[in-house]
Amino acid sequence: MTPTASRRNYQLPFTIRIEPRLNVPRWLAPLVSVGAIVVALLLGAVVLKLVGGDPLAAYAHIGRAAFGDIGVFSDTLVKATPLIMVGLACSVAFRMKLWNIGAEGQFYMGALGASAVILSGLVPETASRPVTIAVMLVAGMLCGAAWGLIPGWLKAQLRVNEIITTLMMNYIAVALVNFFVFAVWSEGGFQMSKTFQKAAWLPRLADYAKEFTAFRGLTTHFGLVFGVLAAVVAWYILYRSLWGYEIRLIGDNARAAEYAGINITRNTVLVMMLSGALAGLAGVSEIAGVVHRLQTSISPGYGFTGIIIAWLAKLNPLVVIPVSILFGGLILAGREIQPSGVPRLIQGIILFMLIASEVLLRYRIRIVRTAAVGTEA
Amino acid sequence: MADSFLAVEMRGIVKRFPGVLANDHVDFDLRAGEIHALLGENGAGKSTLMSVLAGLYKPEAGAILVHGQPAQFNSPRDAIARGLGMIHQHFTLVPSQTVTENILLGLDEPRFLMRLPNYDKRMAELGTRFGLQITPQAKVWQLTVGEQQRVEILKMLYRGVQVLIMDEPTAVLAPQEIEELFKTLRAMAGEGKSIVFISHKLNEVMAIADRITVLRHGRVTAAGLRSADTSKAELAKLMVGRTVLFDLDKKPQAPGEAVLTLDGVCADNDKGRPALRNVSLAVRAGEIVGVAGVAGNGQSELAEVITGLRHCTAGRVLVQGEDITNRPARLAIHKGVAHVPEDRAHVGSAPNLSITDNVIMKSYRHPPLAKGGSLDRSAARRNAERLKEEYAILAPSVDTPVRLLSGGNLQRVILARELSAKPQLLIAMQPTRGLDVGAIEGVQRLLLTQREAGAAVLLVSEELEEIFALSDRIVVLYEGEIAGEITEHDPEAIGLMMTGGKRRTGG
Amino acid sequence: MDPIIILQAGVASGTVLLFATLGEIFAERAGVLNLGVEGMMLIGAMSAFGVTVATGNGGLGLVVAMLMAGALSLLHGLVTIHFQADQVVSGLALTFLGVGLSLVFGEGLNKAGAISLLPIYTVPGLSAIPFLGPILFTKQSVMVYLGYLLLPAAWFYINHTRPGMHLRAVGENPTAADAMGLNVYRLRYLYVCVGGMLAGLAGGTISLAISPGWFSELTTGGQGWIAIGLVIFAQWDPWRAAFGSYAFGALRRLILDIQGPTTLFGFANPFYYNPYWGFFLQMLPYAFTIFVLIIGSREALRKRLGAPAALGIPYVRGERGI
């Protein structure tokens, strides 16, 4: 075959081609994620500089204020605790391509449920701690599950877009909690209820300062245990159980799952309920472990951070734990950074960079030498 | 030969995709006023070559000359501007828009305001001029496949193409419609237009083409053969590289009891129109019943009704005497109904999951794969490795995501899954579509093995040769009804039934 | 509780939803789902307010708002069109980004403007039409009139022009559009940008005309999400989108007004005597959005119509298989 194409212009001795990747090396995915975060932090620094802040000082502050010593690390863990459960809630739902953006509202409903059983007197003040906590857990998780059930049912039966329904439910939940706080259980007209009895408080490390002096001042509470347990259970469900197989199959190809005889409607509802229950659990944990009463602002947007955590953890329940700790630190330390929108901005940039970077997992760049026309490299 | 004779010349075309060299220094030339067939089996590189000519792909190397002048296409628009147009296997029509709008798609006219009534008239005139009847105001989704193809042709003619490339145009047509198409093509060639006819069907190529070029594995094995100078046997050899012996060794055997009985089944399609009308059918153990018919006459709906994936508006579906009408798909699977679906990638498999995960899709609920509520992963893995070996699935490991597998290997995964459960009833939908000859033979042998083992097999295929070779009985589905049933090898009778002609029963 | 006032205010605040919904309709008709509308609106609101307060020029503020929101939406376009990332998650990321950026750059802008920064007009003659005149043409911001013009223009563009036909083709069957020589990528970028700019315009309308000022996230209060829901209710048709938008606007005003009077239709007004019941009223727009979504979804199911066929699916040339 004699090549006859004429070359009118000078051509580079190589061409750059972008083509789909045939296989993804195992080390590439974590590397890309880490790279994305680094780039995100750099971009965040740029923005900070633009508004007159000092990025280096800000980041150093975050590092110190979140992980500097045992005391602040303990506070970071406190912030991380609800994040773990919300991150799990999002991971489980996203596995089935159910876009649960309503973790925030389900969180509030969990808090409401747990508070309601205390404030309404359903659980007498004389009840023991295990009983009280247990009832709060059940009530909170049921409320969260119910809040997930509604959009789940609408999606399963009527194909209603769950992104918008779950989001709307967020606003409704917040308004509902506001109502109860102001109208029903308000203490002295303020926007909070009375403080709960001690039996409704989750134990903290600091409670044992008498036995272990090292625990003095450490606010990490039992909710962390719930979080870790929930992560292990979620991991088991997704990766070892039959149900988890069905969830993963539906998430990958719903039509194939249908063809395999799996009931998509039922699973949609169940998974949304599970997701809601997990977010509700986060709410219970926050109420029983941190604020000890019902108030209007319990969450600085945990539900939304949960989305980012789930995505960064690649929907793996166990990875959610360390990622939540990272973001917990960010939220904790970020409270002191001016302007106040910075932590939220950084979270947004991180998620964006994560998504943008995924292209590197799907395509690769090949540099092909074109030695002479007509021959292939 | 004089360059001015040649409408198109392609020289040394190289086109590469990741992992595949689709065109390996291919030469091709096309004369004015001729019908030139591009022959080759699935995956030989014919569509790729023509896609390069039509401006869809840029070749890594090689040159194209149109009427002797060099041509560089950056997009299909450039190619059309030079008079080259391609009609793809899957139509490039917008279903929700009208015929006229589709013909006008992508053009710079009308300049801003759509004055459809003017254009409707123009399109109708164009259609009459070329003998292609169309209704300009109709929305494309309302048209039959044959009518849609006419719209595609008109689209090209409206743009004044002189070279028309048609990719497997007869795949979706009944024999009578194919004749109509051939008439149209000959008329166009008579007017001086050139036609490239991509196909893998020897009969048609011999019938319509003036000259034939054969591709195999991306290379040209015969260039510009005159159809009068060659034979089917020779072409087959050029296509495949060895003498093709489709000797499947099908032994006659007496069928047993009816495994599948359909009794007056009616069902609607996705658009709410009736897709199956009063279908009654029986498939017995140890027999293969072939369903012939042009795609779109209810075959998909038939499979879905039997496997519990579609609602039956009337009638009954019985498997081994038990009424499973409108019961969930899980029950059909439980009763031993295996289903090899048409759409391997979007229905039959989960692309990002591993071979192991795909292969247990129907069996994961039962021991040994299920232990209590959890999945026994080592058992699943062992199972997958055994099947990988048994069905000769080529893949790096059982953990490979199936989207990375070739069409043939993916089909093997699906077959491994469906057949390893020793089904009582096997519904095979277009099982060999898009596979190369080796894989086709393998699949057909597997179907016969199932038959010998006593399974009842319902085979739906658009390849009449395959239906004839494998089936004990053949029914024809036309517009949702059983148009007839035969047992002897009679293409003309079948062709008539496939286009709504005589009804015949018995055989 | 004057119905005329409620409808008049409804048209005004509905204009915000109208712009955002129309923008999203353009993007979705081209096949790109942009969930970042809330973020785009916030960026638009912040930029418009900031620029106007600094320069005194409301028109400039609007232009900057549209540019900022459009630029951000192009990021979403890049990630979804060229990188083929999942459109849902990218849209969410865009929302976070928009919210974050507007909070950071809007820091210190928290001065509520007591007066509207854009002119208000009453159309002579038209405002005298009984019933409709006082609602549509009396003391409405210039943005409202812009909305009246944009609505039929959008409808006409989409349905009766050639570029509109190409827009629809790209969203229904991008393979066909590509094969016929349309640049699917470029067109999708274009309409995503148009969607973003209109969302920015919507945001600017809030901060310069309807609820002047910058109140951080409360400025939009979830209207971006409501707009996305309205697109489904509207079945991607501009006229239905307008109906939904204005109806929602009226609802928001109704919720405010209903808490005022001591009697309601002859009965004691429960919202007056129990002010905390106002929280349930606050839920109404969101509950209504769900309700409206249900209607839209059921209709789509029934008529077997629905979204542009290629909505949410990244287009890759050559995926047809060789």
Task: Give an account of the 3D structure.
The complex is a heterotrimer of chains A (377), B (507) and C (322). Chain A has 377 residues and is mainly alpha-helical. Helix content of chain A is 65%, strand content 4%. Chain A has helices spanning 28-50, 55-67, 70-95, 103-119, 129-158, 162-184, 223-240, 242-252, 254-259, 264-291, 302-312, 317-334, 342-357, 359-362, and strands at 14-20, 363-369. A two-stranded antiparallel ribbon of chain A has the order 1-2. The relative contact order of chain A is 0.21. The model of chain A is unreliable at 1-8 and 372-377 (pLDDT under 50). Chain B has two domains: 6-240, Rossmann fold (3-Layer(aba) Sandwich), CATH 3.40.50; 258-353 and 406-498, 3-Layer(aba) Sandwich (Rossmann fold). Chain B has 16 helices and 22 strands. In chain B, the strands form five sheets. A six-stranded mixed sheet of chain B has the order 6-7-8-3-9-10, sandwiched between helices. In chain B, strands 16-19-20-13-21-22 form a six-stranded mixed sheet, sandwiched between helices. In chain B, helix 13 packs parallel to helix 14 (437-452). Chain C is mainly alpha-helical and 322 residues long. In chain C, the strands form two sheets. In chain C, strands 1-2 form a two-stranded antiparallel sheet. In chain C, helix 1 runs antiparallel to helix 11 (238-257) and helix 10 crosses helix 11 (238-257). In chain C, 68% of the residues lie in helices and 2% in strands. Chains in contact: A-B, A-C, B-C.
The best one-word shape of chain A is: globular
Quaternary form: heterotrimer
Shape of chain B: globular
Across the major sheet of chain B, the strand order is 6-7-8-3-9-10
SSE layout and pairing:
The complex is a heterotrimer of chains A (377), B (507) and C (322).
Chain A: E1 14-20, H1 28-50, H2 55-67, H3 70-95, H4 103-119, H5 129-158, H6 162-184, H7 223-240, H8 242-252, H9 254-259, H10 264-291, H11 302-312, H12 317-334, H13 342-357, H14 359-362, E2 363-369
Antiparallel strand pairs in A: 1-2
Chain B: E1 6-17, E2 20-31, E3 35-39, H1 46-53, E4 61-66, E5 69-71, H2 76-81, E6 84-87, H3 99-104, H4 116-130, H5 145-158, E7 163-167, H6 175-190, E8 194-199, H7 202-208, E9 211-216, E10 219-226, H8 232-240, E11 258-268, E12 274-284, E13 288-292, H9 299-306, E14 312-319, E15 322-323, H10 329-334, E16 337-340, H11 355-359, E17 370-371, E18 374-375, H12 377-390, H13 407-419, E19 425-429, H14 437-452, E20 456-460, H15 464-470, E21 473-478, E22 481-486, H16 491-498
Parallel strand pairs in B: 3-8, 3-9, 6-7, 7-8, 13-20, 13-21, 16-19, 19-20
Antiparallel strand pairs in B: 1-2, 1-4, 4-5, 9-10, 11-12, 11-14, 14-15, 17-18, 21-22
Chain C: H1 3-29, H2 37-55, H3 58-82, H4 87-105, E1 120-121, H5 132-136, E2 140-141, H6 142-160, H7 162-172, H8 174-179, H9 184-210, H10 223-233, H11 238-257, E3 263-264, E4 267-268, H12 270-273, H13 278-303
Antiparallel strand pairs in C: 1-2, 3-4
